[in-house]
Amino acid sequence: MIIKHTIRDLISKINWEAFFIEWKFHKRFASIANLQGCDVVRASWLTDFEEKDRAKASEAMQLLKEAYRILQQLDKEYEITTLHKSTPALPAKLQELVALEPAYVPYTLMVAAADPEIDLLYENDEHNRKIVQSITNRLVEAGIVASREQIDENLHSFAIDPRTRKPDLWKQLDELLDFKKIGVSISKDGDLLPLSAQCAIIM
Question: Topology of domain 79-202, per CATH?
């Protein structure tokens, strides 16, 4: 089954701690993303930090502003797509590849990705390109969460790190899910494409 999510619907599910950690900020700076209100509220947030940390906090505030600008841009043209399929039990080979303990319970396999055209944005602007890639990764994670909640909000998802470069694992999942249905493929080097593509097992 294929589920499509708009960018605006996923913003509330973004893992901002993971976003800021990817940019080498301590996770405490991610609290800026939870603030609602005017510049006075944000200024108050800034002064809550010790003076030695305020420059870094100011950088985090600026990064969030840039991330929201990118989100607004992405929301105009792109979406996040998930593809999932339920199975009464994991095939033995797949169970071995993901190192899960044998369990005879139903599983849902999922692959998710953003539109591949996003990979081409800001090719000549390293800073904005990195923001696009990191925010898109968080959106795809949010898409997996949103789709999981539609299937059954009581289930848990086991995300598979796309950087594992396990071609055998991707091939096993591809055989079961048929990645091309949502434009996902496996490169010759064993990477998932587009860059935002991620897989998960829901149980």
Answer: NADH Oxidase (3.40.109)
